[in-house]
């Protein structure tokens, strides 16, 4: 019985932690400046430029910068 409880707590802990790594889309990052800047800062601090969130945040930043410079919304 004791082993069942410890396995249950372990499983619940893993489920709770897996929900923390939500993958955001570039559109999510384009809508939320605070979230984009937070993720970009984390990517720089952790030197993790290849994670999905880092790549999507960078793509969103590139699109926003393009729109600001050209006034166009479509990168070709």
What is the overall number of helices? 4
Global mean pLDDT: 81
The helix fraction, in percent, is over 70%
H/E series = HHHH
- Structural Rg: 18 Å
Distance between the termini: 61 Å
Percentage beta strand: under 5%
Structural class: mainly alpha
Number of beta strands: 0
The backbone outline, from C-alpha atoms, is: elongated
InterPro entries: Eex_IncN-like (IPR047937)
Protein name: EexN family lipoprotein
Organism: Rosenbergiella gaditana
Keywords: Lipoprotein
Please render the helix and strand layout as text.
Elements: H1 2-18, H2 26-31, H3 33-46, H4 52-70
Helix pairs in contact: 3-4
What does this structure look like?
- InterPro entries: Eex_IncN-like.
- Keywords: Lipoprotein.
- This is EexN family lipoprotein.
- The chain is mainly alpha-helical and 76 residues long.
- It has one domain.
- It contains four helices and no strands.
- It has helices spanning 2-18, 26-31, 33-46, 52-70.
- Helix 3 (33-46) packs across helix 4.
């Amino acid at each position: 019985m004791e082993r069942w409880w410890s396995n249950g707590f372990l499983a619940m802990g893993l489920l709770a932690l897996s929900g923390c790594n939500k993958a955001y889309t570039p559109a999510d990052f384009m809508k939320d400046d605070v979230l984009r800047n937070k993720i970009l800062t984390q990517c720089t601090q952790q030197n993790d430029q290849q994670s999905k969130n880092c790549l999507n945040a960078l793509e969103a930043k590139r699109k926003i910068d393009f729109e600001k410079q050209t006034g166009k919304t479509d990168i070709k």
